[in-house]
TrEMBL record:
InterPro entries the record matches: Glutathione-S-Trfase_C-like, Glutathione-S-Trfase_C_sf, Glutathione_S-Trfase, Glutathione_S-Trfase_N, Thioredoxin-like_sf
Protein name (record): GST-like protein
Species in which this protein is naturally found: Colwellia chukchiensis
Database matches in Pfam families: GST_C_2 (PF13410), GST_N (PF02798)
SUPFAM superfamilies membership: GST C-terminal domain-like, Thioredoxin-like
Domain GST N-terminal residue range list: 44-134
Lineage top rank: taxon: Bacteria
Domain GST C-terminal residues, every copy: 135-277
Length: 281
């Protein structure tokens, strides 16, 4: 396709393998496993199957924050699921998440294992399980911002990120459309954070944990190398907030879990005591 107007949709769409450029193999129009492979199971209460994408980082930051707060029941085994290699379509992973997306988690602390998928649902489950990181006085606002992120991120990741960074062709219409929406979302955050230290006033919460790996990383130019293009420095309140969270030890540890690096792939060193970690800033 050489110009924006040269494509005429067929009467019936047919899937063409590898037609989506970089990362094309992470998507397909059918669900289910492509191969048999049992999931690995460790000995800690929480079993996490993920990769250090923004959605994956949400959960590892949450778990590291829980450990910092002293919750021994938040100890976890982290297993890398390399989505670039199609490991999310293994039968053991699909048994946990039939949608074949990371992150997925199993809580094996009770009599019956609890399977969880969708990063927002995992954050909410953990916050309720340990009764923390949802401020009682601002619970409704916290959940509103959590679901704002869940609903907004597809425009940032699947829309802007795909067409700006990964699509095989640069299509002005697509980039312009999603850029406009991403900048609108940044403006929403910037205006809100002008009068709030965190998303829920003075209370650090799962709303911050959910939003930072996407929008915090974006304004710190750690996502899509798009900081200059989006003029992210102009969103001063978002930059201030993002920099504040970046200083938290749990955030720093969370972004390292399940990086797709050879020496870090698979299970991380065991964590036995929450006291092994310094308190968060």
């Amino acid at each position: 396709m050489n110009d924006d107007n040269s494509y005429t949709p067929p009467k019936v769409w047919r899937w063409q393998n590898k037609n989506g450029g970089e990362w094309a193999n992470i998507n397909r129009p059918i669900s289910g496993a492509t191969h048999q492979k049992a999931r690995l199971i460790g000995k800690h209460p929480i079993q996490l199957y993920s990769m250090a994408t923004p959605n994956g980082v949400k959960v590892t930051i949450m778990l590291e924050e829980l450990l910092t707060l002293g919750f021994d029941g938040a100890e976890y085994d982290a297993f890398l699921v390399d989505i670039s290699q199609g490991e999310q379509f293994a039968s053991g992973f699909v048994d946990v998440n039939p949608n074949s997306k990371i992150p997925a988690m199993v809580d094996q602390s009770g009599e019956t294992d609890v399977r969880l998928f969708e990063s927002g649902a995992i954050l909410l489950y953990l916050a309720e399980k340990f009764n923390c990181l949802i401020p009682n006085e601002k619970r409704a606002e916290c959940l509103s911002w959590l679901f704002w992120q869940v609903g907004s991120a597809p425009y940032l990741g699947g829309g802007f990120g795909h067409f700006y960074r990964y699509a095989p062709e640069k299509i002005a219409y697509c980039i312009d459309r999603f850029t406009m929406e991403v900048k609108r979302q940044l403006d929403v955050l910037d205006k809100h954070l002008a009068n709030n230290l965190y998303l829920c006033g003075d209370s650090y919460s799962i709303a911050d944990i959910a939003i930072w790996p996407w929008y915090g990383a974006l304004v710190l130019n750690q996502l899509y190398d798009a900081g200059q293009f989006l003029d992210t420095d102009s969103y001063k309140n978002v930059v201030r907030w993002a920099s504040l969270l970046e200083k938290r030890p749990a955030v720093n540890r969370g972004v390292m879990v399940n990086k797709n690096w050879g020496e870090l792939s698979g299970q991380l060193p065991e964590r036995h005591n929450a006291s092994d970690f310094p308190p968060s800033a």
